[in-house]
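As a warm-up, study this chain.
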Amino acid sequence: MKRIFSVMSLVIMASMLFAMVPALALGAEPEEMVKDPAWWAEAGKPYAGVTIRGVSESTPPSNFSKDVLAPAFTKLTGINVEFEVVGWDQMYNKEMQDMEANTGIYDFIYIEQDIVYAYLDRGFMTNLTQLLADNPAIKSPEFNFDDFNTFINYFKDAKGDVFGVPMEAFIKTLAYRTDLFGDAAAQAAFKAKYGYDLAVPTTHQQFTDIAEFFTQWAKDNNIADLWGACVQAASGHAASWYEMVESILPTYGIYNWGLNTENWKFTSADGGELDSPTAKAAMNWWLNNIQYAPPEATSSTWDEVAGSFAAGRCAEAWVYGENISWIGTNAEKSTVVGKTGAALPPTEPGVLEEVEGGTGYIGYYDGGAYGIPVGSKNKEAAALWLQFYGNPLVQTDWAIAGGRVTHNATIDDPAILELDKGMGYFTLLRDQGYLYGGAPPFPFHAPVREAMAPFYFKAIAGEITGDQCMDEMAKAGNAELVKLGYGK
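Now compare it with the structure written out below.
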């Protein structure tokens, strides 16, 4: 995953929602976060004074766990938690260096859903199912792997053993400005120009029409700092590559990066789809939308897209769900509180019906878990921490703080449903989350990405065309897989 706003204050709701701010965010006692505080105190006794160290990406859920949950865990158990919350690139490098050298610096790390397969393939992670079975004294009666939603399945091996306890999960939705879409003058002007009603787009052409319209409408009405769409088009950062393979291509009906997994080829001549006419149409459509985006688009990762939308700088955008909650409710950080809606992304005709029928997915079901590296010197203490944040009583507050849902105790909580009125993200996740899919189980994820991404950056910079980009990415992907022992 990849993403996220770099700074997280604790949850401060807009005044109209203040009465429902969760108890944890307001400083509830740690004893209120578990059912049996005495059990946690007893289980923690052998490890009192031990410090467990972890590294995580700077996301709203990570910051909540660091600032709210970790201190509560320390008070309950006597186990100290040192938490590095850093940018995605830095986090990945830190944990990889630690695990490759088996230095045991970290007792828990953030495992993103799309990289877990590589970690398991290299034997980096501790089998949590086995660890808890071997140590019944640290197995909390309040914690059960079966209480998590299906996202936990991405962190299991072929036997069904768990290697990571989910701490965030979300879908990437189409965020849109409900005030702009509902403006009577804008509706009339749009209908006059395009011949159909202004509404949440369901096709790519509608998305482009709306982006074009609001860019021009802002100019015509002297509205400063408003563009049609925010676009995740950072040149030189993996975010733009992820935008294409995880968010855009699936809405055109191209799944698993366009890779033919029978012969491990990306090229259409070999049964792949990454350089197919459909993939090229997706790439060219996406590049075309940059002209309707704010000037920061070509330096925007997932962080900047969320920030730009929250600043009211665009009418529509693909936004990770972990940001939707604070964008729509936190007036301390967002200018579009009460003006943000969430919807399914636009798709090509027939794609949504195909996915509803069980083939493919319309976007990325993203998120991560904390797992324990095999080199950790404090596995039992770390296992207590993973169970603490996985208990039911902290889930709703955490979801409100970071738009994340991993546990069955969350999604129909009355506080969540009340918060979601007018925004629709959590109910969208509940009712249509099944249309999304995690990254394919490729252990070669990172090297293939690095082989392809430079061509993507060249296309954004205008150095090559969208068609050339997809041709070169497909060839580079094939070559990298051959180097790795696939598709010879």
